Amino acid sequence: MPSASGAPLVVVTGAAGRIGRSAAPLLPAGWRLRLTDLRAGQLPGSGLAVEALDVTDEAACAAAFEGADAVIHLAGVPDPAATWEQLLPANVIGTHAVAAAAVAAGVGRLVVCSSLQAVSAPVAEHQVRSEDPPRPANLYGATKGWAELVGSWVAATSGTSVVALRIGYFNEQRPPWPGTTPRELAAWLSVRDAAELLRASVESDLREVDGGPVGHGAGFVVVNGTSAGRYRKADVSTTQRVLGYRPLDDAWAGEPLP
Ligand SMILES: NC(=O)c1ccc[n+]([C@@H]2O[C@H](COP(=O)([O-])OP(=O)(O)OC[C@H]3O[C@@H](n4cnc5c(N)ncnc54)[C@H](O)[C@@H]3O)[C@@H](O)[C@H]2O)c1
């Protein structure tokens, strides 16, 4: 990711959440980070500073994104059982505000968080591919389809390129077995692989994007985001090829197989 100053400025929304607070300390040391969330504070553990930013406030987003090379949009309600009233502010209005503000601020790369919940109602049981069209089994997944479409719109109409990440089951520790569903094990995204996924999403030049059937086009890609499990709910070959993603963690490593 080229930057005039040499050290790219990357703004993160929702940085005090589970993924943000654990992945932020592992992001490239060469980045300048501006971490934001609803409330200002410090991240537990790392002590990294967080600035206040409500993603439903488009003007505040545009000010926070000034001079940024990339925006990683993590803010949202990540609950598959959430109601429309719970999802509307951050997931629907906020995602639009972040995207519009990123364009207004001339941000080069926007990374939005989708979810495997966007493809949770498959036609048949099969390994989910990055190229699968959205087919959510819940309203939360539909808002993640919205995030993908907003990303596609922005990339098609502005100089901001967009990576939409269909994140699987993020968990700080390797999921225990028994105690975790097979689906969760197969969709696990570890902390260090989450950081690697964010690094790759920001730094990839998207040269390998090659016009697939859905979600692929100039400056826009939808990719699955899970770790390197030996049995995978989602195929990450497109993520590896297009982004240069190098996942390391296997939910089954060292455990008796379920
Ligand atoms: N955790 C998972 O397994 C998972 C799976 C798939 C996708 N995702 C997506 O990844 C992203 C991050 O997930 P997470 O697990 O860290 O969620 P989280 O709930 O732990 O963190 C989300 C953060 O967003 C912030 N936020 C909510 N509304 C906001 C607003 N209006 N303005 C600014 N900040 C706001 C919250 O304060 C919180 O710190 C979400 O978009 C989620 O949908 C997560």
From TrEMBL:
Single GO MF descriptor: oxidoreductase activity, acting on the CH-OH group of donors, NAD or NADP as acceptor
InterPro entries: Epimerase_deHydtase (IPR001509), NAD(P)-bd_dom_sf (IPR036291), NAD(P)_dehydrat-like (IPR050425)
A Pfam family it matches: Epimerase
Coiled coil: none
Domain NAD-dependent epimerase/dehydratase span(s) in chain numbering: 10-167
Annotated keywords: Oxidoreductase
UniProt keyword Ribosomal protein present: no
Residue ranges of the TM segments: none
Keyword Oxidoreductase: yes
Protein family (similarity comment): Belongs to the NAD(P)-dependent epimerase/dehydratase family. Dihydroflavonol-4-reductase subfamily.
Protein name according to UniProt: NAD(P)-dependent oxidoreductase
